[in-house]
Amino acid sequence: MVEMETAAWGPLGAGEGTIRRRLLLGHSMIAAFAGNRIAGAICFVETSQDPHDRVNFPKTFAAYSSMARSVPVLSLYVYNLGVRPEFRGTAMARRLLSEMTEHGRRAGARWLVGDGRCPSYAGAQDGTPDKVVSDRKFRQTIEDWHRTGRMPPVKAITRDPLLRFYRRLLDCEFLHLAPDFLPEDTSSGGYRVIFAKDISQQDGHST
User: Which residues contact 162 (CB under 8 A, 6 or more apart)?
Assistant: First the structure.
């Protein structure tokens, strides 16, 4: 798992100690294998928190990714969807998200919640496999959102390819901007765009 984290995230990847602590907190990890190695994984924690409650929503990635599992399960807080670079562009990320969604429905969760990276803010940083270039208009969108507190149009948010990927794949709603969420992620300017998908809905109808 550590090897996959490094391949997927470079210096932002989690080490063995962090992964062990998360498992002890009751976190779940679903992995995809290629031969005898992990090619991709999705990691999350089941929580009773409502992602629309901004007051109690974790303010940093460290807090978000180190929550203890809590019940009753209302949400799945996803903090890692990692795929080795050689498997990007395949259906692996989609399959991992699908498996996690089914897990969430079985657990009785309503919300799938993610902290969307936005590397178009500053472009790929050294040591990471990202190939995203900086987008001046997107950067201005994020800074205006931070300054005014007003959510920009979806079209402006999805100029970033990762946020566009989540929007297209999940039809998720963007909830709020989280500044200084992970300062080490300089490509995103430390920002995260928090999003949620109502997974109690399937094929347009309540399950």
Answer: 116, 117, 118, 119, 132
What pLDDT, in 10s, does the model give residues 37-96? 999 999 999 999 999 999 999 999 999 999 999 999 999 999 999 999 899 889 999 999
Instruction: Name residue, tokens 């100029």.
Output: 159
Say if strands 111-116 and 173-178 run parallel, antiparallel, or are unpaired: unpaired
**pTM (two decimals):** 0.92
Measure CA 47 to chain center: 15
Nearest-angstrom CA–CA distance, 140 and 146: 10
Domain of residue 100, CATH code: 3.40.630.30
CB 101 within 8 A of CB 162: no
Residue 73, CA distances (Å) to 10, 47, 48, 51, 108 in order: 32, 5, 5, 12, 6
Number of domains the chain is built from = 1
